[in-house]
Amino acid sequence: MKVKIFTDGGSRGNPGNSGFGVVVVDDKNDNIFESYQNMGIKTNNEAEYGGLIFALGWLKDNEDRLQINEAEFYADSELMIKQMQGLYKVKARNLKELNKQARGLILEIKSKIKFSAILRELNNRADLLANRGMDKYENK
Protein backbone atom coordinates (compact mmCIF):
# COMPACT_ATOMS: atom_id res chain seq x y z
CA MET A 1 0.00 0.00 0.00
CA LYS A 2 1.09 3.55 -0.70
CA VAL A 3 0.41 6.23 1.91
CA LYS A 4 0.53 10.00 1.87
CA ILE A 5 1.84 11.59 5.04
CA PHE A 6 1.12 15.26 5.67
CA THR A 7 3.11 17.04 8.35
CA ASP A 8 3.10 20.56 9.66
CA GLY A 9 4.83 22.33 12.50
CA GLY A 10 4.41 25.78 13.88
CA SER A 11 5.61 28.14 16.54
CA ARG A 12 3.87 31.10 18.15
CA GLY A 13 6.93 33.25 18.42
CA ASN A 14 10.21 32.13 16.93
CA PRO A 15 11.26 30.53 19.17
CA GLY A 16 7.99 30.15 21.01
CA ASN A 17 5.28 27.73 21.98
CA SER A 18 5.35 25.09 19.25
CA GLY A 19 3.56 22.00 18.06
CA PHE A 20 3.14 19.71 15.10
CA GLY A 21 0.41 17.78 13.35
CA VAL A 22 0.58 14.58 11.28
CA VAL A 23 -2.05 13.08 8.98
CA VAL A 24 -1.69 9.76 7.14
CA VAL A 25 -4.05 8.75 4.34
CA ASP A 26 -4.12 5.55 2.32
CA ASP A 27 -4.19 5.19 -1.45
CA LYS A 28 -7.96 5.86 -1.42
CA ASN A 29 -7.40 9.10 0.54
CA ASP A 30 -9.03 7.58 3.63
CA ASN A 31 -7.58 8.86 6.88
CA ILE A 32 -5.76 6.02 8.67
CA PHE A 33 -3.89 7.98 11.36
CA GLU A 34 -3.53 11.46 12.75
CA SER A 35 -1.85 12.97 15.76
CA TYR A 36 -0.61 16.21 17.22
CA GLN A 37 1.83 17.13 19.92
CA ASN A 38 3.11 20.14 21.78
CA MET A 39 6.89 20.58 21.64
CA GLY A 40 7.37 23.35 24.19
CA ILE A 41 9.52 26.31 23.23
CA LYS A 42 11.06 25.67 19.80
CA THR A 43 11.57 27.46 16.51
CA ASN A 44 9.16 27.01 13.62
CA ASN A 45 11.71 24.92 11.71
CA GLU A 46 12.35 22.71 14.75
CA ALA A 47 8.59 22.11 14.98
CA GLU A 48 8.48 21.20 11.27
CA TYR A 49 11.24 18.64 11.82
CA GLY A 50 9.47 17.41 14.96
CA GLY A 51 6.43 16.52 12.88
CA LEU A 52 8.55 14.80 10.25
CA ILE A 53 10.50 12.77 12.81
CA PHE A 54 7.28 11.71 14.56
CA ALA A 55 5.78 10.67 11.20
CA LEU A 56 8.90 8.72 10.22
CA GLY A 57 8.74 6.91 13.56
CA TRP A 58 5.09 6.10 12.97
CA LEU A 59 5.91 4.72 9.51
CA LYS A 60 8.77 2.61 10.88
CA ASP A 61 6.50 1.15 13.57
CA ASN A 62 3.53 0.47 11.26
CA GLU A 63 4.81 -0.32 7.75
CA ASP A 64 4.83 -4.10 8.25
CA ARG A 65 1.49 -4.28 10.06
CA LEU A 66 -0.25 -2.10 7.45
CA GLN A 67 1.72 -3.53 4.50
CA ILE A 68 3.02 -0.10 3.48
CA ASN A 69 5.66 -0.20 0.77
CA GLU A 70 5.67 3.44 -0.34
CA ALA A 71 5.22 6.73 1.50
CA GLU A 72 5.10 10.24 0.13
CA PHE A 73 5.67 12.98 2.67
CA TYR A 74 4.05 16.37 2.09
CA ALA A 75 4.84 19.55 4.00
CA ASP A 76 4.55 23.26 3.37
CA SER A 77 8.06 23.86 4.75
CA GLU A 78 10.07 24.26 1.58
CA LEU A 79 13.27 24.51 3.64
CA MET A 80 12.76 21.17 5.37
CA ILE A 81 11.61 19.37 2.22
CA LYS A 82 14.55 20.64 0.15
CA GLN A 83 16.94 19.69 2.96
CA MET A 84 15.47 16.17 3.06
CA GLN A 85 15.72 15.97 -0.74
CA GLY A 86 19.39 16.96 -0.46
CA LEU A 87 18.86 20.13 -2.49
CA TYR A 88 19.66 22.50 0.42
CA LYS A 89 22.46 22.14 2.94
CA VAL A 90 21.51 22.14 6.60
CA LYS A 91 23.36 25.15 7.94
CA ALA A 92 21.50 25.97 11.15
CA ARG A 93 23.09 24.21 14.13
CA ASN A 94 19.70 23.54 15.75
CA LEU A 95 18.48 21.71 12.63
CA LYS A 96 21.58 19.59 11.91
CA GLU A 97 20.81 17.07 14.67
CA LEU A 98 17.13 16.91 13.69
CA ASN A 99 18.03 16.30 10.04
CA LYS A 100 20.47 13.59 11.12
CA GLN A 101 17.77 11.99 13.28
CA ALA A 102 15.29 11.99 10.37
CA ARG A 103 17.86 10.48 8.01
CA GLY A 104 18.68 7.80 10.57
CA LEU A 105 15.02 6.79 10.76
CA ILE A 106 14.82 6.62 6.96
CA LEU A 107 17.64 4.06 6.99
CA GLU A 108 15.49 1.85 9.25
CA ILE A 109 12.40 2.06 7.01
CA LYS A 110 11.86 -0.48 4.25
CA SER A 111 9.27 1.56 2.33
CA LYS A 112 10.20 3.76 -0.61
CA ILE A 113 10.08 7.39 0.57
CA LYS A 114 9.58 10.60 -1.36
CA PHE A 115 9.35 14.21 -0.16
CA SER A 116 7.21 16.90 -1.79
CA ALA A 117 6.59 20.52 -0.89
CA ILE A 118 2.98 21.64 -1.08
CA LEU A 119 1.13 24.89 -0.64
CA ARG A 120 -0.12 25.71 2.85
CA GLU A 121 -3.73 25.58 1.57
CA LEU A 122 -3.24 21.91 0.67
CA ASN A 123 -2.02 21.06 4.17
CA ASN A 124 -5.07 22.23 6.13
CA ARG A 125 -5.64 19.21 8.37
CA ALA A 126 -1.99 18.91 9.48
CA ASP A 127 -1.98 22.69 10.09
CA LEU A 128 -5.13 22.43 12.22
CA LEU A 129 -3.54 19.64 14.25
CA ALA A 130 -0.29 21.60 14.69
CA ASN A 131 -2.36 24.45 16.10
CA ARG A 132 -4.07 22.01 18.48
CA GLY A 133 -0.61 21.00 19.64
CA MET A 134 0.27 24.62 20.31
CA ASP A 135 -3.08 25.17 22.06
CA LYS A 136 -2.42 22.17 24.30
CA TYR A 137 0.52 23.99 25.91
CA GLU A 138 -1.26 27.31 26.22
CA ASN A 139 -4.27 25.69 27.93
CA LYS A 140 -2.25 24.04 30.72
TrEMBL record:
Cross-referenced Pfam families: RVT_3
Gene3D superfamilies the record matches: Ribonuclease H-like superfamily/Ribonuclease H
PROSITE patterns linked to this entry: RNASE_H_1 (PS50879)
Domain (RNase H type-1): residue spans on this chain: 1-135
Record InterPro entries: RNaseH-like_sf, RNaseH_domain, RNaseH_sf
MF terms (GO), sorted A to Z: nucleic acid binding; RNA-DNA hybrid ribonuclease activity
Name assigned to this protein: RNase H type-1 domain-containing protein
Species the sequence originates in: Candidatus Shapirobacteria bacterium CG2_30_35_20
